[in-house]
């Protein structure tokens, strides 16, 4: 994950934490299994999601669901980039709005959406598209987040709106809980 300033002190470590700009784009969004973990400087994002203490043995991981976790999933640049990538894939997949929404839902939850799901997502998507069409600066604030740039061939207002829809889908329990 992107490392906030001041967490990783390179004076106390042989390994410097890589800056996101120095890492190839394909390597930026790997599973947390492949991240650096420093025992005395745990990444704040991992701590929010109940990452275990690396100094002690743990028989069972604690699981919690807090508002801070929801804020992390909605605002962290790495997650916003992921939502934007999902939205871009859905736009490239089809020009039809309902097909895009169904594709986004399917990618996020690993299940086929019902007509009610698509109707709710459609209403939210249209409201977001209207808001972004009226305010280019608002769209830019959504699309210019993170290291990986938004696809310049896609309509910025549409991409920003569908990015918000992706965030809603990915922050539903069906997306982040595997049963």
Summarize the structure in words:
With 179 residues, this protein is mainly α. It contains nine helices and no strands. Helix 4 crosses helix 8 (156-170), helix 5 runs parallel beside helix 8 (156-170) and helix 7 crosses helix 8. The longest helix has 19 residues, at 115-133. The chain is globular and about 50 Å long. It starts with 24 loop residues before the first helix and ends with a helix. The mean pLDDT is 85.
Taking all Cα atoms into account, the compactness measure Rg is 18 Å
Oligomer description: single chain
Question: What ranges have pLDDT less than 50 throughout 5 or more consecutive residues?
Answer: none
Tally of extended strands? 0
Shape: globular
In percent terms, what proportion of residues is strand? Answer: under 5%
Mean pLDDT across every amino acid position: 85
Structural class: mainly alpha
Helix content: 40-55%
Distance between the termini: 25 Å
Number of helices: 9
Run of helices and strands: HHHHHHHHH
Note the main sheet. Answer: none
How is this structure best summarized?
This protein has 179 residues and is mostly helical. The chain is 53% helix and 0% strand. The two termini are 25 Å apart.
Q: Keyphrases for this structure?
A:
globular, 9 helices, 179 residues, mainly alpha
Secondary structure elements and pairings:
Blueprint: H1 25-28, H2 44-48, H3 67-75, H4 77-93, H5 97-109, H6 115-133, H7 136-143, H8 156-170, H9 173-176
């Amino acid at each position: 994950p992107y490392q906030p300033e001041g967490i990783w002190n390179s004076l106390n470590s042989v390994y410097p934490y890589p800056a996101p700009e120095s890492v190839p784009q394909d390597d930026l969004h790997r599973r947390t299994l492949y991240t650096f973990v420093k025992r005395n400087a745990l990444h704040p994002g991992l701590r929010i999601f109940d990452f275990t203490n690396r100094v002690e043995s743990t028989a069972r991981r604690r699981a919690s669901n807090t508002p801070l976790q929801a804020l992390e999933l909605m605002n962290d640049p790495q997650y916003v980039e992921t939502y934007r990538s999902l939205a871009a894939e859905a736009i490239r997949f089809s020009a039809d709005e309902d097909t895009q929404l169904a594709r986004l839902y399917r990618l996020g939850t690993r299940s086929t959406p019902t007509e009610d799901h698509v109707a709710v997502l459609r209403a939210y998507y249209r409201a977001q598209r209207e808001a972004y069409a009226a305010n280019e600066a608002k769209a830019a604030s959504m699309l210019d987040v993170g290291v990986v740039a938004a696809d310049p061939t896609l309509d910025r207002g549409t991409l920003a709106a569908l990015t918000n829809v992706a965030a809603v889908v990915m922050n539903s329990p069906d997306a982040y809980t595997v049963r």
